[in-house]
Amino acid sequence: MISTSVAFDAPDLAAHLDQSSAEQLDALDFGVIGFGPDTLVHRYNAFESQAAGLSPQRVLEQPLFTNVAPCLNNFMVAQRFEDAQDDNTALDTTVDYVLTLRMRPVKVALRLLANPGGATRYVLVQRQPR
Fold first, then answer.
1. For the whole prediction, is pTM greater than 0.70?
2. Upper half-sphere CA count for residue 53 (Cβ side, 13 Å)
3. Alpha-carbon gap, residue 26 to 76, rounded angstroms
4. How confident is the model over 13-50, as pLDDT tens digits?
5. For residue range 71-97, what is the model confidence (pLDDT) as tens digits?
6. Which fold has domain 26-127?
7. Residue-wise over 29-47: b if at least 16 C-beta within 10 A, else e?
8. Among candidates 22, 76, 70, which has minimal Cα distance to 49?
9. How far apart, in whole angstroms, are the C-alpha atoms of residue 94 and residue 119?
10. CA atoms of 53 and 72, how far apart (whole Å)
11. Disulfide engineering: 122 pairs with which of 36, 58, 109, 113, CB 3.0-4.6 Å?
12. Is residue 4 within 8 Å of residue 25, measured between CB atoms?
């Protein structure tokens, strides 16, 4: 089970997210985008929907790196997921990033999570305080 007290930088967070209901993801204070090996988005929480201005209906079952967030389709984000998959290694890294699609540039921290053989990979988005 996951609670709203789970932090963006909590250890073993991917396993917690995998076990969480949609309602539990919606209670988190950071964005959660979960997608499969085909890059189709399967999990999208309310925090990220409100912050990005994209409804779940517009995001779910869409390819993350081409239709939803092409600004993440680069060596810093998408390529890291591909490399982890190709190498059959775990991915858990946090990068400072600037989101630019459909919005004024916004500084964020992205946490990229993937486990070898895992069904869901995650891009977590923590907006920086103003």
1. yes
2. 6
3. 26
4. 999 999 999 999 999 999 999 999 999 999 999 999 99
5. 999 999 999 999 999 999 999 999 999
6. Beta-Lactamase (3.30.450)
7. ebbbbbbeeebebebbbbb
8. 22
9. 20
10. 16
11. 113
12. no
Among candidates 27, 20, 17, which has minimal Cα distance to 122?
A: 17
CA–CA dist 10, 3 (Å, integer): 12
Residues 6+ apart with CB under 8 A from 110: 72, 77, 94, 95, 97, 123, 124, 125, 126
31-35: strand order across its sheet: 41-44, 31-35, 121-127, 106-114, 91-99
